Every structure is written in structure tokens, then in C-alpha cells.
């Protein structure tokens, strides 16, 4: 993409705003779920408002990435922004719970497109050294959404009603559209020919089955539905590989995996998703078991997880300008993940130990796991940008994000079964987190480390 230096700044601002509204959408709604369930008469189904958006984001991400390669980033950015805005408005005015779920699906499809399009466009707009310098802004976007989102959503829902929570992103959407309409590069994509409808359908079906398996306790533990969903995932995965090998214009070009280090980066991202994202629901249970922590204390302790993530991302943004090889940063994130998950695995077995020791283990484990999340996401995203062929940047970034999201769903489902099979909760939680640490160790072994991996200044 040929864009003037001056023209890149408003484009970058528009892309950041797009990522902000997409990430903020996932955090502001959480605090409003009880109010939504009570008002629409579905209190037990309220978590579905979050789950349906997660599902839509996951299955739409690789499709948006491939379509960006085909139709250009500006077209996909504007389309995703309009979808997100339409979904937000429909959510705010939803008269029934099913209508709200449908609106949230539209919002999630738009949100998935905003994130993958922004990351792909940044990969094309800036060289490797500039991406490192601008990583601090991506960290800031995450920090604002993670820290400000839940309390902001709770305050708005309490003061004005839950419907206004969905109106919160609209001014930011308008600003992003005003900037992005002209600033985001509009060069037509480099891929042509018939779109891979069969591949996109298999991604949607398999991804939906896996996300449902990982996010629904009722279905994930059901003796009928869990094997059916697992079987659907396997069938779709096998069929997808066969379709992509034969497709004239595949959704995920097999040539991407001919780049050995890129294939390793995708594998590590998937394994990290299993270990770090897949254990999100189990970490609060480990805190409650090992510390006897209630809801309020657990929430306060989890700030160490977010703090570790922000601290590591910020340190990386500063230090990587001088230490530009990305592969060692990625391996450092995995080492931190092994340490953090190992400490958290020990926590449920320390209930009889002195309180200061237990709290020190908990905080150190949470901070290390958070640092692994922040550092790993930054390092492997930038690594993928540097390794991906320019004509398939969107497909590569979509695949990387899809691998992380599906890894998290697979981990949540698998770890749930481990917990159900354990003789008692403490043993089960220790087993879950120990297995997660072992998965991270496998990721460390297969992580990119060769001389072909680009540095930040390549």
C-alpha cells in the first residue's frame, strides 16, 4: 500500500478507534448482564448475550481477513464498522431476548472484522521497526477497554438503563468512520477469482461448534451434545483441510504454512490459547479454593492478571526498540506462562499454609500469567506480520487470531472435562492448571527460533 507519511496518521487513528470499540464492546456489557436478564425475563440465559458475540467474532475473523486481501482494507473496515454500528443500535432497541441475541451476533461479526482488518492494515502500512514503536498504542487500547469497560458499563446500566450501554460506542464509531472513510488505504486487494464459500462455511460451522462446546457448561458436560459437538468440530476440520487444498482461491492459502516459522507461530498461538485463554474460567475457582476468597476479593486479585498484561506489553513496546529480535520475546512470554500457571496450579493445595505465602503465590502467578498473555500476543502478532506474504496479510492475521480463539474454546472444554473427572475440586483445579502449564511447555519447544525469523528492524 502506497500511503503518504502524513496520510498514515489519520489511518492509524481510525484503525485504533475501530479496535477500541470492538474490544470495549466485550467488556462494557459484562456488568449489565444481570439487568438485561431481569428486564427481558431471561435471567438464567443472560450470559448468552456475551457468548453469542464471542461466537460471531470467532467464526467471522478468518473470513474478514481473507476478504480484506480480496477487496482492500478500506472497504472491509467501513463494512465492519457499519455492521458493528447496526448491531449496537439493534441491541439498544431490542424488544425481546431473541432479538437481542440476533443483534449481538451482528455486532460480533462487525467487531471481528474491525480487529482483524486493523491489524492487517497496520502490518501493511508500517515496516517492522515502526510497528514496534506503535505497539504502545495497541496496549493503551487494551488497557482502556479492560480497565474502564466493566465499571463504565456498570455505571451506565445503573444510571440510565442497560440499553444505553450499547449506545456507548456510537460516538467512537462515528469518529472512526469519518477518519477511515478516506484515510484507510482503499487499494483493491491482490486476490481475485471466486470466493471460497465452502471453506468459509466449514470455518463457521466448526468454529461455532467448538465455541459452543467451550462456553456452554450445560452442553459441554451433556453426554449427548458434547460428543456430537466434538464430532462436528473434527468433521469440519478434516473437510476444511481437504477443501482448502483443492480450492482455486482458498480462504486460508496452504502456502502460508509452507513458511515454516509462520506455521510454528500459528501453532504456538493455538497452544497458548488453550493454556492461557482456556483457563480464564478456572483461575477464579483456584483463588476461591486456595485462599477462600469471595467475589469481591477475587475481583481485586484478578487486577494482578490485568496489571501483568499491561506491564509486559508496555515494557515490550519500549525495550523491543533496542532488542529487536522477536523470537526471544515470544519464548520469554511462554516461560512466564509456564511459571505463572505452575504457581496457580499449586495454589489449591496450599489451603493449610500461612496466608502471606498463599497470597504471594496467587499474586505472582496471576502477574506472570498476565505478562505471558500481553507479551505473547504482541510478539507473535508482530512476528506473523513480518513473516506473512504481503498478498495474504489478512488471511495470515485472520488465521493467527482464529487459532488463538479456537485454542481458548478447546482449552475451556477440555479443562472442564478434566475438572469433572477429578475426585475433588482442589485436585481437579490443580490438574487443570498443571496441564495448562504442560501445554505451554510444548509451545515453548515448538516456538520459532531460527535465523529466518524477522527482527523488529528487518
From TrEMBL:
The keyword Transport applies. It is found in: Cell inner membrane. InterPro entries: MFS, MFS_dom, MFS_trans_sf. The keyword Membrane applies. Gene3D superfamilies: MFS general substrate transporter like domains, Multidrug resistance protein D. This is MFS transporter. It comes from Pseudonocardia adelaidensis. Its main location: membrane. It holds the Pfam family MFS_1. Residues 11-449 form the Major facilitator superfamily (MFS) profile domain. The chain crosses the membrane at residues 12-33, 45-63, 75-94, 106-126, 138-158, 164-181, 193-212, 224-241, 262-287, 299-320, 332-351, 357-383, 395-420, 426-447. Keywords: Membrane, Transmembrane, Transmembrane helix, Transport. It is a multi-pass membrane protein. It comes from the Bacteria.
Amino acid at each position: 500500500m502506497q500511503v503518504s507519511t502524513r496520510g498514515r496518521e489519520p489511518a492509524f487513528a481510525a484503525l485504533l478507534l475501530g479496535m477500541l470499540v470492538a474490544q470495549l464492546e466485550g467488556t462494557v456489557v459484562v456488568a449489565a448482564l444481570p439487568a438485561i436478564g431481569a428486564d427481558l425475563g431471561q435471567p438464567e440465559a443472560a450470559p448468552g448475550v456475551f457468548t453469542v458475540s464471542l461466537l460471531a467474532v470467532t467464526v467471522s475473523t478468518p473470513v474478514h481477513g481473507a476478504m480484506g486481501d480480496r477487496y482492500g482494507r478500506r472497504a472491509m473496515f467501513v463494512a465492519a464498522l457499519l455492521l458493528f454500528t447496526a448491531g449496537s443500535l439493534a441491541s439498544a432497541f431490542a424488544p425481546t431476548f431473541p432479538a437481542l441475541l440476533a443483534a449481538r451476533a451482528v455486532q460480533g461479526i462487525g467487531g471481528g472484522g474491525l480487529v482483524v482488518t486493523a491489524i492487517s492494515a497496520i502490518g501493511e502500512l508500517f515496516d517492522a521497526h515502526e510497528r514496534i514503536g506503535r505497539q504502545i498504542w495497541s496496549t493503551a487500547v487494551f488497557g482502556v477497554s479492560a480497565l474502564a469497560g466493566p465499571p463504565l458499563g456498570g455505571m451506565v446500566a445503573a444510571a440510565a438503563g442497560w440499553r444505553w450501554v450499547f449506545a456507548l460506542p456510537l460516538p467512537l464509531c462515528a469518529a472512526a468512520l469519518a477518519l477511515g472513510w478516506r484515510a484507510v488505504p482503499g487499494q483493491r486487494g491482490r486476490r481475485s477469482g471466486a470466493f471460497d464459500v465452502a471453506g468459509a462455511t466449514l470455518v463457521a460451522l466448526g468454529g461455532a461448534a467448538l465455541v459452543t462446546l467451550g462456553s456452554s457448561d450445560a452442553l459441554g458436560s451433556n453426554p449427548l451434545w458434547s460428543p456430537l459437538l466434538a464430532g462436528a468440530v473434527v468433521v469440519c476440520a478434516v473437510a476444511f483441510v481437504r477443501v482448502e487444498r483443492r480450492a482455486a482461491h482458498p480462504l486460508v492459502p496452504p502456502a502460508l504454512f509452507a513458511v515454516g516459522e509462520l506455521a510454528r507461530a500459528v501453532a504456538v498461538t493455538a497452544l497458548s490459547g488453550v493454556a492461557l485463554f482456556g483457563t480464564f474460567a478456572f483461575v477464579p475457582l483456584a483463588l476461591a479454593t486456595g485462599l477462600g476468597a469471595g467475589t469481591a476479593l477475587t475481583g481485586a486479585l484478578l487486577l494482578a492478571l490485568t496489571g501483568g498484561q499491561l506491564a509486559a506489553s508496555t515494557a515490550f513496546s519500549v525495550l523491543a526498540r533496542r532488542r529487536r529480535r522477536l523470537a526471544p520475546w515470544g519464548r520469554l512470554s511462554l516461560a512466564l506462562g509456564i511459571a505463572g500457571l505452575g504457581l496457580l496450579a499449586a495454589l489449591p493445595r496450599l489451603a493449610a499454609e500461612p496466608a502471606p505465602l498463599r497470597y504471594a503465590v496467587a499474586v505472582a502467578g496471576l502477574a506472570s500469567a498476565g505478562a505471558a498473555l500481553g507479551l505473547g500476543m504482541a510478539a507473535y502478532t508482530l512476528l506473523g506480520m513480518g513473516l506473512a506474504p504481503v498478498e495474504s496479510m489478512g488471511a495470515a492475521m485472520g488465521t493467527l487470531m482464529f487459532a488463538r480463539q479456537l485454542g481458548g474454546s478447546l482449552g475451556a472444554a477440555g479443562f472442564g472435562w478434566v475438572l469433572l473427572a477429578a475426585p475433588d475440586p482442589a485436585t481437579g483445579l490443580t490438574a487443570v492448571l498443571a496441564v495448562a502449564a504442560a501445554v505451554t511447555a510444548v509451545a515453548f519447544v515448538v516456538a520459532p527460533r531460527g535465523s529466518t525469523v524477522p527482527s523488529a528492524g528487518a
